[in-house]
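for the writeup, i need someone to sanity check this before i put it in the appendix. the sequnce is what the collaborator sent (i think, or maybe the updated version? ugh). structure was predicted straight from it, no edits. if anything looks off just tell me and ill rerun, i have time this weekend
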Amino acid sequence: MLVVNRYSNLMVLIEGLTSAIRLARNFVRFCLRHIELILVLSLIFIAAIQYYVRPQSQSLSQILKNGELRVIIADEPDSQFVLNRQHYGFEYELLEAFAEDLGVELKLEVVPYGELFALLDSGAGDIAVGGIIDSPFVRRVSKPSIPWYQAQTTVVYKRGTKRPKRLEDLAEESILTSARYFDIEGLQSLNLTDDHRSEYTLLSAVDQGDERFVLSVNYRAANAKHYLPNLNRSFILPDLLDVVWALPKRVDRPLEIRLNQFLQSALEQKLPAQLAKNYFKSPTRLTTYDALAIHKKIKKVLPEFEYAFKRSARKGGIDWQLLAAMGYQESRWSNSATSPTGVRGVMQLTTNTALALGVDDRMDMNQSIDAAGVYLKQLKARLPQSIEEPQRTWFAVGAYNVGMKHILAAYRKARSQGLKKTQWSTISELLPTLYGEHFERGVQAQKYVERVQIFTDIIRFYDIHQRKNSKLKKGVVALASADVLSD
């Protein structure tokens, strides 16, 4: 009986081994027949493992080794803007401080807000920046930093229409908003309608009367009113919203720690608050009449001068919007402008300046604008090397108005008093009493630079966010086919 059982077990074992060998042989045959499919599936499997295991961004050690921090930033003027081919802005300056803290170069990719998180997920950048508000959505698609600024929401409407004073006034109204405000607790009572357009495009639509209400944050709505004079803010909602930067969902932990340590240090030093004060404070602002006037002339008059400003700015290595802003402040873009002091033309050149620059007809638009671009470049070259951009530009603009000798006198006075001599804000404060008593030309130069700054911002905003494929007026200037402008 024992022998029979052993024989049965042996036969079962042999049969099992035979089946296993048969299956293995069939599997090998299948693999040989479908070798390409097997290889493709293997590669997909390996890639999937690598995708879900490795970080989506560079590690901190890679950033330090490569000497480059890759940042995806929203194309919004309160996050960043470009002046004379250099970036500036509320969030940009904080980013620059972080890159300096790491000892690496800052590399920006400027994109619409709606593309931030998709690009971050793809590994195109190490950090995403641009008015990002912490929300359940942001936490689903990224790893937010610690909050470094706080904002409040407000509903924006057009000046001259009925102002909503409380939430109940908006009960039946549809409020357009960008996706950044969805899923935020405290906004559920509003009838929000998602819109794919950028927030500044929505604000522009309200300014033009094409849309009625848009949800925004207090600092952005205040900043937008600078460019869009028809905007008004309604009530401020009480809940505070956290502004954050976004890291990839699978972030390198040392990078996350280093970023949060930097932001915590910046908060302790009150750096975000100081930047907000610098960018969102209200210096001498335009009256509503002045704001409406320049917007009207941008559309109706500027096209007659735009090519000339672009050509001259390109030769002088400056932004054409800056030169156009100076022209507007000087003459409101009028070739026939004259002054009792003897200045003439769109750029209000003096007789001596015109002679020095080879201008024989100050009323000629092209000669006047070309000369102004050359003159501004010369003024910048005469300034002390310690003055860096963008301060160097504002020093030169001030000198264009009041003369270089007075700007240098203010520079020396600031140096003797131990003040920040390379900052235009310091020089601006000294000019009204530069020589120990009231100096009217100094007051004029102070206001001149302030208004040129404002006009530059407005023209640049229009050029980037509001222009609707407008063309230069036919017959004003001829653009040769071989002459390609670089804006």
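The chain has two domains: 63-282, 288-466. The two ends are 100 Å apart (CA to CA).
thx in advance!!
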